[in-house]
Amino acid sequence: xxxxxxxxxxDAMEFGRLIESFRTFTPRAEILLEEVPAPQKLxxxxxxxxxxxxxxxxxxxxxxxxxxxxxxxHEPGGQDTWxxxxxxxxxxxxxxxxxxxxxxxxxxxxxxxxxxxxxKAGCEFTAASxxxxxxxxxxxxxxxxxxxxxxxxxxASWTPVxxxxxxxxxxxxxxxxxxxxxxxxxxxxxxxxAIKSPPTRGRR
Length: 204
Prior knowledge:
The protein is an alpha+beta fold. It contains 4 helices and 6 strands. It has helices at about 10-25, 100, 105-120, 170-185, and strands at about 30-35, 45-55, 65-80, 85-95, 125-135, 150-160. A 6-stranded antiparallel beta sheet has the order 1-2-3-4-6-5, covered by helices on one side. Helix 3 packs antiparallel against helix 4 (about 170-185). The longest helix is centred in the middle third of the chain and has 15 residues, at about 105-120. The chain is globular and about 50 Å long. Mean pLDDT is about 80; it is low at about 1-5 and about 190-200.
């Protein structure tokens, strides 16, 4: 697109250097990242991370409250539908209060969370698209003692606009911002660093 400059990663070695920076990325303590197999047929180069988000409590009180997946695709020369050579694809889900799930504006709020999370991380992007789904589950029969469950799911993709490869880390930061927002985690006070979680687990 006119007015945008895209970095072209032309071989596996250069893309490998990019994903090594992803592997050393450290999110806030409640988010555990793990490298997972990436789809092989969508682009020449790809990389994927999964995320599990806990409530930050210890021992028996710890509970998973959200999860997600982030995929970075790179096609030298780009693809027509991307408007660029890279594409970020994500899926996130989180438990929500059943009353919140009934709010007809929840999908619009979820999409706003995505856009604001990316912008907050300093991301520039174009061609964003996706869906936000409200999910409600009721239990019956032998499962009836279980409480009704409600979730929000966001499936989205966007084309990062970058002038240097290092700026791609902003998009991982933005994705982690979205996980924090959708999970209802308290924001980290400005100027205060979160306690570091263990290094990203991955396949070496």
